[in-house]
Amino acid sequence: KKIVSHNLGVLYATINSKEFISKAMKYLKNSKMDVDYYNLGVYYHLGLGVKEDNKMAQNYFKKAESIIYAKENLKIMQKYKKEEKRL
To answer: CB of 73 within 8 A of CB of 61?
Structure first.
């Protein structure tokens, strides 16, 4: 089930339309695989097919615990969040 959801999510994500991005997001969430959590974090961080939402991005990067890039992105986002508060 995880692999099927992952594959469908990736397939729908490659089709550049809002309808298919929402389907991709649904399948990527259902796969519960770290790589898909990472991708969801990227989508929310950059606003790819969804409204930009750094809080959601951070939540998905935290869930993608085995992906080193997710950990690095989370560190960078938290660093800039602290710097923004100082300004």
So the answer is: yes
DSSP 50-63: S---HHHHHHHHHH
**What six digits make up the tokens of 86?**
């100082």
d(CA 85, CA 74): 17
Rounded distance between C-alpha atoms, residue 49 and residue 18, angstroms? 6
Cβ neighbours of residue 21 closer than 8 Å, sequence gap 6 or more: 12, 13, 43, 48, 49, 50
**Two structure tokens written together for 80:** 């800039």
pLDDT in tens, the chain (87 residues): 889 999 999 999 888 777 888 899 999 999 999 999 999 999 999 898 889 999 999 999 999 989 999 999 888 888 877 665 565
How far apart, in whole angstroms, are the C-alpha atoms of residue 49 and residue 6?
A: 18
pTM of the model: 0.82
